[in-house]
Amino acid sequence: MNWKQLLFPRAVHSAFKRARRAKTALAKPWLTGRLRLGRPAPLARYLGALRHGSQVVRKKQGIVYAVAGDRFVRFAAEPRAMAKLGREYDMWQALRGEGLAAILPHSMALHDVPGGKILESDRLRPIAKEDHAAVALPIVQALLSKARPVVPSGLPATIEAGLAFARQISGGALPQSFASESDIRDAFARPLMTGISHKDLHYRNVMRDDQGKPVLIDLKSCEPERVVAIDLLALACKNLQAQGKQTLVDAAFAAQQRNWRVSELEPILALVDLPRPLWGQIYLLNVIGLHATKRKSGEEVDPFSRALFLRILAKDWRSPIR
User: What is the pLDDT of residues 303-322, one digit of tens each?
Assistant: First the structure.
């Protein structure tokens, strides 16, 4: 998800998602038809060997996604797409090695085939948006069970980049209604639970297996030795955004105004070990930092982006409604 989807009005984002879903729905029969005709050949040969009726469910960023019986199969022929499949498999193995097999797909296998790579795993069941928090909780608890309290050597990279970018567009200092830089730095100058970060715990990346057990997917983004609280805040904001009609940043601001008192998210938010009055500001800096790290060195900030970020930074983040 790019920064424009994080910050643009919900109506714009929803229209974008509807168009993308419509495009996927229209493409599925065509892609499955190609598969029946033997294209892409490596995937067609592999699925034929499974002896199951198979169909393509989507193609995204160079990866063809197909289902065959109880198997979920991904095929890639382009170097970047093949690297993603390799990263997914490597992280599955690494997380199993950390003792987290209970929250992962039961099986996964990476195959080198002529012309590409195939990654095969269990076919899982999607969850409803309303079930996100309940299904994610045991996954979060399992990840935190492998974390440990560590005083960070500095700010997380996205927060540091977010601060620098915010200062740049705000004339050298953060707005008084936001938070002071010293408060942000002090928030990370203490022992914080540090461990595996997934970085994208939205409801489509949390599923159930055939026994109903919660399962974490899209593992390629996982990184070790990260402050876990940022993941938890992102999970909460994505949950609120999925339930309502607002951007992720607006969801964070609304939660901040309520002092983050959200009943269905309380079990997850209770695990956040950063200062509660700064949760919204920290999450926003993380979002801004994700944008800033993708910019080219020395690239000028366009007037529209500057105005958009300034409007968000200038909100009164310090005064929750009691």
Answer: 887 888 888 999 999 876 55
CATH class of 129-313: alpha beta
Q: What is the pLDDT of residues 248-279, one digit of tens each?
A: 888 999 999 999 999 999 999 999 999 999 99
Superfamily of domain covering 3-122: Phosphorylase Kinase; domain 1 (3.30.200.20)
Per-residue pLDDT tens digits for 8-26: 555 555 555 555 555 555 6
> Structure tokens of 83?
């690297």
Q: If you write DSSP's letter for every residue of 110-141 in order, what string do you get?
A: EEEETTEEEEEEE--B---GGGHHHHHHHHHH
Query: What's the Cα-to-Cα distance from 318 to each of 52, 165, 189, 248, 253, rounded to whole Å?
Result: 58, 20, 20, 18, 10
3-state secondary structure of 208: strand
Please give the Cα distance from 185 to 156 (Å, whole number): 10
Q: What is the pLDDT of residue 6?
A: 53
- Nearest Cα neighbor of 239 from 195, 201, 271, 210 is 201
Please say whether the beta carbons of 75 and 116 come within 8 A: yes
Question: Could you give the angle at which helices 279-292 and 303-313 cross, rounded to 10 degrees?
Answer: 170
Q: Taking Cα atoms as reference points, which of 243, 309, 235, 311 lies closest to residue 279? A: 235
Phi-psi region of 44 (alpha: psi -120 to 50; beta: other; left: phi over 0): alpha
The tens digit of pLDDT for each residue in 109-158 reads 999 999 999 999 999 999 999 999 999 999 999 999 999 999 999 999 99
Q: DSSP 3-state assignment of 88?
A: helix
Tell me the C-alpha distance between 140 and 235, whole Å.
10
Predicted structure pTM score: 0.87
Residues forming CATH 3.90.1200 domain(s) in the chain:
129-313
Distance CA 231, CA 144 (A): 11
Name the residue among 68, 70, 75 with its Cα closest to residue 53. Answer: 68
User: What is the C-alpha R_g of the chain?
Assistant: 21
